[in-house]
Amino acid sequence: MFKEFKEFAMRGNVMDLAIGVVIGAAFGKIVDSLVKDIIMPPLGFIIGKVDFANIFLVLAQGKTPGPYVTLDAAQKAGAVTLNIGNFINICISFLIVAFAIFLIVKLMNKLKREEPAAPAEPAPTPEDVLLLREIRDSLKK
């Protein structure tokens, strides 16, 4: 059984998939940081000093009654919240990842696409065929 597992795990597709998952996880963290730390702060500032991470609706009060200034404070109090800002951040992260994957697939398709080969020159006609043509043509005359 160990031998079969080893053969399965060492196949090219499985290793490629494992590498893809690891790189994808690292890429996901980079995109999360990009959205959370680079894109959303200026966007929130332009909109009106809004911190998207703290856009939430309180569905049920926690142990300590609100109003809650931040999402973290609401969650610590045990309030049930609808985290709209986090959802917006995750949607933006998804769009960035989807666009990056689109660009990668487009590049891979472009690299895979083979240019059409120039038509091959016809092979020279064999001498016996040329001789037979000459005989034919002379018989027609």
Structural notes for this entry:
There is one protein chain. With 141 residues, the chain is mostly helical. It has a single domain (2-50, 83-140), classed as Non-ribosomal Peptide Synthetase Peptidyl Carrier Protein, Chain A (Orthogonal Bundle). The protein contains 5 helices and 2 strands; from the N terminus they run H-H-E-H-E-H-H. The protein has helices at 2-9, 12-48, 71-76, 84-112, 127-140, and strands at residues 57-60, 80-82. A two-stranded antiparallel ribbon has the order 1-2. Helix 2 packs across helix 4 (84-112). The longest helix is centred in the first third of the chain and has 37 residues, at 12-48. It is elongated and about 115 Å long. The model has no long low-confidence stretch (mean pLDDT 82).
Summary?
This protein has 141 residues and is mainly alpha-helical. It is built from five helices and two strands.
Beta-sheet strand percentage? under 5%
Name the CATH architecture. Answer: Orthogonal Bundle
How many strand units? Answer: 2
Q: Which spans have pLDDT < 50 for at least 5 consecutive residues?
A: none
Question: Which structural class matches the secondary elements?
Answer: mainly alpha
Helix content: 55-70%
Largest sheet: 2 strands, antiparallel
Order of helices and strands: HHEHEHH
| Tally of helical runs | 5
**CATH class division:** Mainly Alpha
Strand order of the largest sheet: 1-2
Distance between the amino and carboxyl termini:
82 Å
Shape: elongated
**How large is the radius of gyration?**
33 Å
CATH fold category name: Non-ribosomal Peptide Synthetase Peptidyl Carrier Protein, Chain A
Our count of domains comes out at 1
Roughly what is the average pLDDT, rounded to an integer?
82
